[in-house]
UniProtKB/TrEMBL annotation:
Lineage start: Bacteria, Candidatus Roizmaniibacteriota
Domain of life according to the entry: Bacteria
Protein name, UniProt field: Lysine--tRNA ligase
Quaternary structure annotation from Swiss-Prot or TrEMBL: Homodimer.
GO CC annotation: cytosol
Species name: Candidatus Roizmanbacteria bacterium CG_4_9_14_0_8_um_filter_34_12
C-alpha cells in the first residue's frame, strides 16, 4: 500500500468519526461574508470567511492553520479558551486540504502575524487525498496537465496565466463591441467543413443518418451572416483539427474571427494593430512586451511588407520573376522538403514559411500572398497571381492571419475546385466545395475584410509562455492506461 493509500485510509476513519458526531462533512452551503483578501483589511473586526487548509499544526491548547481562498491566505489561530473543550478536541479531525469556514476576530499575534482567532469553525468538505507537498509543489509536467486542479492550487503563476487569458477574452470583446461588432454563434457540428486547410474530426448524426464534422473554422458561416445583412460580426469559437499535437498546436483550440463589410485587408490590419496595442495597455499598462528574452514595443505604425519584397530583402530571391526550377533548386539546397507537383505559389510560400518568420522580431505585417495558398482571399487589385492576404508577426512568430474576402461566387467555385486538386500531404486538408456557401454569395456579398486569431496564441503572447498546453486549462492528452 502506498503512502497516499495509507493517508486515505486514515482520513476515511476520521470521516466515520465526524459522521458519528452528527456532523455533516459535506454541507450544502456556507454564508461566507468576506474573502480572505478582505479579512486582511479588517484588523480588530469580526469576520466570517472560508477556504482550504494548506497547513495545520497544534501546540497543546493552541493550533495554527493557513487558510487560502482565490484572493489570498491568512493564518488561523485556534485557542481552546475561545472554542471550548469539545470543539477544540474535534480540530484533530481536520487535515490539510479540508475546506472550512470560520468566524472570529482579526488580530495580530505576538509574532506580528495577521490572524483570525476563530470563535467557531465549520467543516465544509473533508479531503480524502493528501495534497502534494506545498514546498515542492506539483512539478511533473504531465501530472500538472492531467491534474490541473492541483496545478492551479499549488503553482500561483499558473492561476495568474489563466487570469490573463480571461482578461484577454473580456477585453477583446470590449474592443470589438465598441467598434459596433455583433457577437454571434455558428454551428460546431457542420455537414461540411471549411474555412481553413485542415483535417477534420468526423462523427455521425444518428437522428439524420448523416456524416457530420466538428468545425475547423467558423469563417463560412460568419460570411453567410454578412450576406444576411450583418455588417460587423465576430465569434469566439471552439475549433477542432484532427492533426498533430506539439508545442503550438492542440486538436481543440479557441479562435476569434471577425468580418467587416465594406472593409479590405488594409482596414482589418488597422483594427488588429489597434487591438494589440489596446490589449497591451489594458493588461500590462504599456505597449512594451517581453517575448522570450526580447523586449518588443508594439507602439508606432507596424510596417507592411509584401511577401515578395521580404524574400528579396532577406533571401535575395526575386520570387516574382524566378522560375519553378530555380525555386526547386533552392529548396533542395536548403533541405526544404517538397512533395513533387507543387505550383510556383506553393513553393514560394513553402520557402517563406521555412526561412522568414523567425527573422521578423519587431511587429510586422507580411502582405500579398500567392493565390494558390489563399482560396478564400480576393485577388490582388493590381498584381495578378497574388491575393490581398496578410499575416502579423511579432517576436519571430505568426500571431494572426486575414484577408480581403473573395466575394465573386464564380471565382470562389473555381478556387474551391483548384484547392481540392492541389498538391498536399493530406487531401482532407483541402477546402471543400460548399454549395450552400456558394449559393449564399450568389445572392450578393458586399466587399468584406476578415481575420482569425488564436485565443491560445494570444494568451501565449501576453504571458510570454510558448507551450500551448500551458495556456489551455485541460489540454488534449494521451489516455492513461
Amino acid at each position: 500500500m502506498t503512502t497516499s493509500d495509507n493517508i486515505r485510509e486514515e482520513r476515511l476513519k476520521k470521516l466515520e468519526k465526524i459522521r458519528a458526531l452528527g456532523i455533516n462533512p459535506y454541507p450544502a452551503n456556507f454564508d461566507k461574508k468576506q474573502s480572505i483578501a478582505q479579512t486582511r483589511e479588517m484588523e480588530g473586526k469580526v469576520v466570517k470567511t472560508a477556504g482550504r487548509i494548506l497547513s495545520f499544526r497544534t501546540h497543546g491548547n493552541i493550533a495554527f492553520a493557513d487558510l487560502k481562498d482565490e484572493t489570498g491566505k491568512i493564518q488561523l489561530f485556534f485557542k481552546k479558551t475561545e472554542l471550548g473543550d469539545e470543539s477544540y478536541k474535534n480540530l484533530m479531525l481536520l487535515d490539510i486540504g479540508d475546506y472550512v469556514g470560520v468566524e472570529g476576530t482579526v488580530t495580530k499575534t505576538i509574532a506580528g502575524e495577521l490572524s483570525i482567532i476563530p470563535t467557531s469553525y465549520t467543516l465544509l468538505s473533508k479531503s480524502l487525498l493528501p495534497l502534494p507537498n506545498q514546498w515542492y509543489g506539483l512539478k511533473d509536467v504531465e501530472a500538472r496537465y492531467r491534474q490541473r486542479y492541483l496545478d492551479l492550487l499549488l503553482n500561483p503563476e499558473v492561476r495568474q496565466r489563466f487570469d490573463i487569458r480571461t482578461k484577454v477574452i473580456r477585453e477583446l470583446r470590449h474592443y470589438l463591441d465598441n467598434l459596433g461588432f455583433w457577437e454571434v454563434e455558428s454551428p460546431v457540428l457542420q455537414p461540411l467543413y471549411g474555412g481553413a486547410n485542415a483535417k477534420p474530426f468526423v462523427t455521425h448524426l444518428n437522428a439524420l443518418g448523416q456524416k457530420m464534422y466538428l468545425r475547423i473554422a467558423d469563417e463560412l458561416y460568419l460570411k453567410r451572416l454578412i450576406v444576411g445583412g450583418y455588417e460587423r460580426v465576430y465569434e469566439i469559437a471552439k475549433d477542432f483539427r484532427n492533426e498533430g499535437v506539439d508545442r503550438t498546436h492542440n486538436p481543440e483550440f479557441t479562435m476569434i474571427e471577425w468580418y467587416e463589410a465594406y472593409a479590405d485587408y488594409q482596414r482589418v490590419m488597422d483594427v488588429t494593430e489597434g487591438l494589440f496595442k489596446y490589449l497591451a495597455n489594458t493588461i500590462n499598462g504599456n505597449t512594451k512586451m517581453k517575448i522570450d528574452e526580447m523586449q518588443i514595443d508594439l507602439s508606432g505604425k507596424w510596417p507592411r511588407i509584401t511577401m515578395a519584397q521580404i524574400m528579396k530583402n532577406k533571401l535575395q530571391l526575386d520570387v516574382e520573376n524566378i522560375t519553378i526550377e530555380n525555386l526547386l533548386a533552392y529548396c533542395k539546397n536548403e533541405k526544404i522538403e517538397v512533395l513533387g507537383g507543387e505550383s510556383k505559389g506553393q513553393l514560394i510560400f513553402l520557402i517563406f514559411e521555412h526561412k522568414i518568420p523567425k527573422t521578423l522580431i519587431n511587429p510586422t505585417w507580411i502582405i500579398d500572398y500567392p493565390i494558390e495558398m489563399s482560396p478564400l482571399s480576393k485577388e490582388h487589385r493590381s498584381k495578378p497571381g497574388w491575393v490581398e492576404r496578410f499575416e502579423g508577426y511579432i517576436g519571430g512568430r505568426e500571431i494572426c492571419d486575414g484577408w480581403s474576402e473573395l466575394t465573386d461566387p464564380l471565382i470562389q467555385r473555381e478556387r474551391f475546385t483548384s484547392d481540392v486538386k492541389a498538391t498536399r500531404k493530406d487531401k482532407e486538408e483541402a477546402q471543400q466545395i460548399d454549395e450552400d456557401f456558394l449559393t449564399a454569395i450568389e445572392y450578393g456579398m458586399p466587399p468584406t475584410g476578415g481575420i482569425g486569431i488564436g485565443i491560445d496564441r494570444l494568451t501565449m503572447f501576453f504571458t510570454n509562455t510558448w507551450a500551448i498546453k500551458e495556456v489551455i486549462l485541460f489540454p488534449t492528452l494521451r489516455k492513461e492506461e
